[in-house]
Every structure is written in C-alpha cells, then in structure tokens.
Amino acid sequence: MKAIIIGYGKMGREIEKILAERGHEVVLVVDADNSAELNAANLARADVAIEFTTPATACANIRTCLEHGTAVVSGTTGWTERLPEMQALCRQRGGAFFYASNYCLGVNLLFRLNRQLAAMIDRVGGYEVRIGETHHTQKKDAPSGTAITLAEGIIDNLSAKRSWVNYAPGVEQAAHRVASPAEVAPDQIEIDSRREGMVPGIHTVTYESEDDILELSHTIKNRRTLALGAVIAAEFLCGKRGVFGMDDLLQ
Questions:
Q1: Is 182 helix (H, G, I), strand (E, B) or coil?
Q2: What's the total number of domains in the chain?
Q3: What is the tens place of the pLDDT at every residue in 88-116?
Q4: Nearest CA among 230, 200, 246, 233 for reference residue 12
Q5: Looking at the structure, do residues 175 and 92 belong to the same domain, yes or no?
Q6: Both 33 and 119 in a single domain?
Q7: Does the pTM exceed 0.85?
C-alpha cells in the first residue's frame, strides 16, 4: 500500500512507524509548511491518504483527496458538524472515505457496550448519566470526539436524553459550553472535559441512582493503539468505494 500522511504531529509520526513495520510505503508527508503538495499529481501516486490534522484544516484536506479520487482515512476531531457534507461528497464522487472519532479497538468496543447499556437503563429507569473525559494539555478542543460519540450513543438509546453540553474548565475551544454542571438541563448529558499533563485519553460513562453507581471506563495507554487502528482502516479501505467507519471494520 502506498500512503500519504497528512499531518505530521505525534500521531503522524506514529502512523509513519507502523506503516513501515507493516511493509507499506509512505510516498509523501504533508504538514503545514508544505500543504501545497497535497495536489492531484501527488495524490495520484497514493492508494490512500491518512489524515490527522486540526478541525480548521481537516475538511479541506478530505475534500482535496476525494475530489482527486484518492481514498482517505481521517481521525481529526472537532469538525464533525461537516461530516455529512464530506460523506455526501464521497458518494457523489464514487470515492472511499473512512472516519472514526477514535481508532482504538477497545474504545470501539466501549461504544457498543455504551449503546447496549443505555438501552437497558432506558428500560429499568432510575439512573442519571454523565460523561467524563481527560486528555493531555496539547489537545485544545473539547469535548473529545470520543466523548461526543459516547453521548450520541446514549441519546439514541435513552429516551430521557436529547442533547449534550460541555463543562470544560480552562479549555478555550469548548463546544456547547456550560459554566458549571448546575446549568445542565434534565434532558441533557453533561460531558466534563479535563486537560492534564500528557494523558493520551481517559473516558468514563457514569450512571448514578440513589443507591448505586455504575461505570464504563476506558484508558488509552499510548498513541500506538490509535495509529495502528488508523493504518488497519487504511488497509481495509483500499480498493473499496463508499463511506465507512469502525463498525464496518469490526464486522
């Protein structure tokens, strides 16, 4: 497989290592200082592009790949209000696009367990739910894409919840911000976002009743698991057409 890496931060470097370990070729690395090299001629050299950049640049990067017929895997979070637009472009162009908010296998198992638990709680009642997420201080946006996916899974299966809000002390780029947990309405899910040290990622879904507390929790130990998942997604995507996610890969 010939790959282009778009975004050469810590994730991009880890992806580069894993591509080499698995016998793939990196034909181009694109970062902020050479973004003009993401063009038709270079994209034609690649089977797939793997994109981990910023919310401000992800959509344009994905569009460029799709418009030039190159399959693209993206793991950038914080821009997903435009995800349906990119999925529609992929279908229109007959391209291939894979998106996940988190490429860790354990996290995607958590997503499935989360949906199942929300449905069971909906049947028995009596529990309030909240989500906590902690990441390293270099992650500027909040909440994490993983936390949003967890919240959406709950909303789809728990009739008492209709939306989510974010409590993110000290984080400037927080979406749907509330000043304190006290402002969370009964039909909203509170996502508490924290930025501490070099934490790769901790996510916890907590259900609490008057009598007990039930939690689902996942901790990422290092970025390698995320990079490996993204490379496996790229291998899966090669030769396909359509819009895909981790559920398609796991099945």
A1: helix
A2: 2
A3: 999 999 999 999 988 998 999 999 999 99
A4: 230
A5: no
A6: no
A7: no
